[in-house]
Amino acid sequence: MNASPPPAPPTGFGRDTQSTMYRDGASGHRPSVPTGAQALFDAAHAVMSPEAWAYVAGSSGSESTTEANRAALDRWRILPRVLRNVAVRELGIDLFGHRYPSPVIAAPIGALGLVRRDADLAVARATSKLGIPYVFSNQASSSMEDTAAVMGDGPRWFQLYWSSSDDLVASLLRRAEASGAQAIVITLDTHTLGWRPRDLDLAYLPFIHGIGIAQYTSDPVFRELVRERLARPASGPRPKVTPSAIRTLLDMTRNHPGKFLPNLRSGEPKAAVETFLDVFSRPSLTWEELDFARERTSLPIVLKGIQHPDDARRAIAAGVDGIIVSNHGGRQIDGAVGSADALPAIVEAINGAIPVLFDSGIRGGSDIFTALALGATAVLVGRPYVCGLALAGERGVSEVFRNLIAEFDIVLGLSGHTSPKELSIDDLIRAPLP
Fold first, then answer.
1. Quick check: helix, strand or coil at residue 283?
2. Taking the CB of residue 419, how many other CB atoms lie within 10 A of it?
3. Nearest Cα to 127, choosing from 324, 390, 367, 394?
4. What residues are annotated to the active site?
5. Of 388, 111, 392, 386, nearest to 251 (Cα)?
6. Cβ(91)–Cβ(9) under 8 Å?
7. Residue 380 phi, psi dihedral angles, 5° rounding
8. Please, what is the Cα angle at 410 between 407 and 415, to 5 degrees?
9. What is the DSSP secondary-structure string of 16-61?
10. Quick one: pLDDT band at residue 239, thresholds 50, 70, 90?
11. Burial grade of 339 (CB within 10 A; 0-12, 13-18, 19 or more)
12. CB-based contacts of 66: which residues, under 8 Å, 6+ apart?
């Protein structure tokens, strides 16, 4: 894409956003979504189905890693400076050869069809209008081509879960590049789903219902794998017919591309789900295999899920273009280190060789400030925008991101700074442990 980047938020974006909200209030208009994180999550919980809320809000085990993410950010306190001229502020960042209007990126979230049927498209429209890069999930409920089509020149990246099929990996990379992606995010920490009690207690996995596999069912290599499965004689015991099994089959059929009755007669939706479960991930993936991706795309490659400094050094040696410090929002390993606790040592190990991005636990503008001061170039935000999506669709997503950027702008100015690039660890102090 050769289009010019969207304009950066104007100077005083945070102040102007606040002023607009107060002025609108005088006429009886209130925000579509709560501006505080806890109220936002509580409101979304009230409107989501039990299955959707469990999938979006749940984490692994006792969910201690999610708590650790928050504790790790909260351990750092902002040390503001005063009597500095902060009247003119610039929030934009340069990343992988592109100029983005703020240091905020929309994280990949799978199975958003649980929340709204047109979820991925709503997020795409909202982020493109704000100039926020949207990382298309490999587990999306709309294909990357359909999602890109509603974005115009809006920036988009693509998240890759490395399949057991090399041909499928290559096909997904080709499609991402053709869809205008500006980077490939290879997620490393989900080769096996974490132990997630909220989902397990409901015995519900969206993919089995055909939700979140649109990147696969729209892929020519995957469809050929499905055809091969259908051509083989059936093996194994026939599943027991129960009301729940019938509902699941109807869900698969409804969520599969094409018309309902032909899909139901063909058996293709069920075969697609079974094929997906077979090829979703590759637990045997090693550093050496990353060359396969590099040989098949010219796009920057970013590794998501780095938590150890030695792995950060290996990433540099492997020739990748960036890393994301992330523990998948606490969804994979119970008892893992909070991402903000891992960040400083990784930034030190990288020593400026490649950009370091941050994910896991961002809930407000001060969190963005803290992550950037600890050395991140940008932050990925996930669950908050999903809550906005549940409450008000595209508008809700837009307001969540607007509020985050506005609060960050205000914190930046109040702390005595005019740009993200000014921030350093000297702007923080470590709070004493209780």
1. coil
2. 14
3. 394
4. 328
5. 111
6. yes
7. -105, 135
8. 125
9. HHHHHHHHHHHTT---SS-SSHHHHHHHHHHHS-HHHHHHHH--ST
10. confident
11. buried
12. 59, 329, 330, 331, 361
Mean pLDDT in the chain? 95
pLDDT band at 238 (very low <50, low <70, confident <90, very high): confident
Indicate the residue type of 297.
T
346-357 pLDDT, tens per residue? 999 999 999 999
Pick from 315, 134, 81, 111: nearest CA to 193:
111
Q: Are strands 98-100 and 93-95 parallel, antiparallel or unpaired?
A: antiparallel
How far, CA to CA in Å, does 131 sit from each of 3, 52, 111? 12, 28, 23
Measured from the Cβ of residue 220, the count of other Cβ atoms closer than 10 Å reads 12
As a whole number of angstroms, the longest Cα–Cα distance in the chain is: 77
- With a CB cutoff of 8 Å and minimum separation 6, the contacts of 319 are 290, 294
Digit-coded pLDDT (tens) for 94-115 = 999 999 999 999 999 999 999 9
One-character DSSP codes across 202-270: HT--GGGGTTT-HHHHT-HHHHHHHHHHHHSPP-SPPPPP-HHHHHHHHHHHHHSSS-HHHHHHHTHHH
The contacts of residue 276 (CB under 8 Å, 6+ apart) are 207, 213, 216, 222
**3-state SS class at 416:** coil
* Distance of alpha carbon 396 from alpha carbon 284, whole angstroms: 40
Q: How far are the Cα atoms of 25, 317, 372 from residue 411, in angstroms, in the given order?
A: 23, 36, 12
SS3 of 95-123: the string is ECCEEECCCEEECCCCCHHHCCCCHHHHH
Residues in the chain: 434
Q: Which residues contact 346 (CB under 8 A, 6 or more apart)?
A: 306, 307, 308, 309, 312, 323, 325, 356
Question: Which residue type is seen at 81?
Answer: R
Residue bearing tokens 């920490």: 189
User: Is 0.85 topped by the overall pTM?
Assistant: yes
CA 236 vs. chain centroid, Å, equals 38
Name residue 95's beta-bridge partners. Answer: 98
Q: Is the Cα dihedral 405, 31, 385, 121 positive or negative?
A: negative
Name 87's Cβ contacts closer than 8 Å, sequence gap at least 6: 11
Question: Which tokens hold the place of 233?
Answer: 């004689």
Tokens coding 151: 């974005």
Residue 433 has pLDDT above 80, yes or no: no
Do the beta carbons of residue 71 and residue 134 sit within 8 Å?
A: no
